[in-house]
Amino acid sequence: xxxxxxxxxxxxxxxxxxxxxxxxxxxxxxxxxxxxxxxxxxxxxxxxxxxxxxxxxxxxxxxxxxxxxxxxxxxxxxxxxxxxxxxxxxxxxxxxxxxxxxxxxxxxxxxxxxxxxxxxxxxxxxxxxxxxxxxxxxxxxxxxxxxxxxxxxxxxxxxxxxxxxxxxxxxxxxxxxxxxxxxxxxxxxxxxxxxxxxxxxxxxxxxxxxxxxxxxxxxxxxxxxxxxxxxxxxxxxxxxxxxxxxxxxxxxxxxxxxxxxx
Length: 262
Ligand code: F6R
What we know:
- The chain has helices at residues 9-26, 41-54, 80-87, 109-123, 159-165, 184-188, 203-211, 235-238, 244-253, and strands at residues 2-6, 31-34, 62-65, 67-69, 99-100, 128-131, 153-156, 178-181, 192-197, 229-234.
- The protein is α/β, with parallel strands linked by helices.
- The protein has one domain (2-256): 3-Layer(aba) Sandwich (Rossmann fold), CATH 3.40.50.
- The strands form two sheets. It has a seven-stranded parallel β-sheet with strand order 1-10-9-6-2-3-5.
- The protein is globular, with a radius of gyration of 18 Å.
- 42% of the residues are buried.
- The structure holds fructose -6-phosphate.
- Residues 35-39, 66-67, 132-134, 138-140 line the site of fructose -6-phosphate.
């Protein structure tokens, strides 16, 4: 496990993009796992800048997104497919056919979930999974109480999530009630995981996810079991961590011994 703390949101976004660029230099056909939400926007902006100004080449990259609402067409402004096109895919040279978002309009949603898992497997598995974290500790749409072994599936949204998301829709009744989401087990299969968090509002949940017990109450806490997880935090999101000084110490010294981690 690695905890990287930087001063600002822009700093962690840049740091994350540099890590992805480095991996792409070694493996141009990288398989990326991607998230939506406000957290990765800075990362995507920086990747777009690297593509435009430094010719970062996405032509062989494939991507799989974490989740999608059920019942929203791809060009609905609140669909996650639309979000990804707008914020990343339309601005880099990734091939659209190499970008996969679960199909929330599929006739057979269960079959779509199985197919999604199969496609990830056939692609060789996810190299880098990008994650944000909800204030209740969720990753993807794996809300508190989700099975820690879950796979891609149809998930009923909690009343809280529906209420939270209603600000993006005209009426609360327009908010989708269901989503397709990669499961905790699917996420844990990724070769490396990068969880980004910024701002004071994420401080408490970051502390329990990284330093608290592993529990389905905070689904992100399972990441403690992953052999290659990196948390990229700004100072506000890291402010409640008990071992903050130690993480900083490791970060400052890790260059001295190749592979040193927390
Ligand atoms: C998005 C996703 C969610 C978000 C989480 C944090 O694809 O799966 O789990 O990462 O809700 O959202 P933000 O980044 O908006 O705070």
